[in-house]
Amino acid sequence: RLTQEDLAAAMNVSRIPVREALIVLAGEGAIHMAPHRGAFVEALSEASVADHYDLFGHVDGFALRRAIERSSSEDRGALAAEMLGVAEVADPVVMQRHVISARRQFHELGGSRRFGAVARGMVGLVPGNFFVEVPGSVEVAQRRLPEVGRAVAAGKAEAAVEAYEAMLQEHSELVRTALRARGVLQ
After folding, report:
1. Do the beta carbons of residue 185 and residue 93 sit within 8 Å?
2. Pairwise CA distance, residues 11 & 95, whole Å
3. Of 18, 82, 112, 138, which is least packed with CB atoms within 10 Å of its CB?
4. Residue 127: its pLDDT value, please?
5. Who contacts 103 (Cβ-Cβ below 8 Å, separation ≥6)?
6. Section 123-147 average pLDDT
């Protein structure tokens, strides 16, 4: 249980920024707020982690499919090159930059204003650099993103989405393994 008063006192701030932060966290699904009772941290379960990655797969898959359908061969080539470039990247910081860049590219190429509003609402589950925090994630990206890139270069939307979703499923399992090892999952 989290109370605005206790949090404000612990951080030596007024209740207003604490309340605003709790509202943001509730919107992200990290906590739930009960009127006159306070805020409660949402427990992570196997199912909630799996759902998180499935949702990302649907949203990103939509954008990736649309990017391939709507973009020029030049834009698809640039996106494919970004994805193919990760095959030899071993540094997790560099990998994070590549993945963020590729995701930003296909969101821009395939999205609309409405899509952008939905995608901005998606929040990562792992704080910090995913590739530093989740053992094995760099190797999954090294193997899977070039597969996505080859499908993008060939204009094969379904193959690209399938490979991307497979990467997210592998990442989901790695996250669940890491959280289990830390005793975080319920």
Report:
1. no
2. 34
3. 112
4. 80
5. 60
6. 93
The whole-chain average pLDDT of the chain stands at 92
Compute the distance between CA of residue 124 and CA of residue 80 in angstroms, rounded to an integer. Answer: 23
Alpha-carbon gap, residue 56 to 4, rounded angstroms: 31
What are the residues whose beta carbons fall under 8 Å from the beta carbon of 95, sequence distance 6 or more?
Answer: 86, 89, 131, 138, 141, 142
Model confidence, pTM: 0.82
**Cβ contacts of 137 within 8 Å, gap of 6 or more:** 92, 130, 131, 171, 174
What's the distance, CA 132 to chain centroid? 14
Q: What's the rounded Cα separation, in Å, for the pair 78 and 142?
A: 18
pLDDT higher at 88 or 1: 88
Q: What integer pLDDT is reported at residue 42 of this predicted model?
A: 78
- The token pair at 170 is 């592998």
Mean pLDDT to the nearest integer, 28-51: 85
Instruction: Give the span between the Cα atoms of 108 and 126, in whole angstroms.
Output: 23
Rounded alpha-carbon distances, angstroms, from residue 37 to 5, 42, 43, 65: 12, 15, 17, 44
Q: Which helix (H) or strand (E) holds 54?
A: helix 46-70
Radius of gyration of the chain, Cα coordinates, nearest whole angstrom: 19
Q: What is the C-alpha to C-alpha distance for residues 86 and 152, in angstroms, rounded to an integer?
A: 15
Place of tokens 């094969």: 156
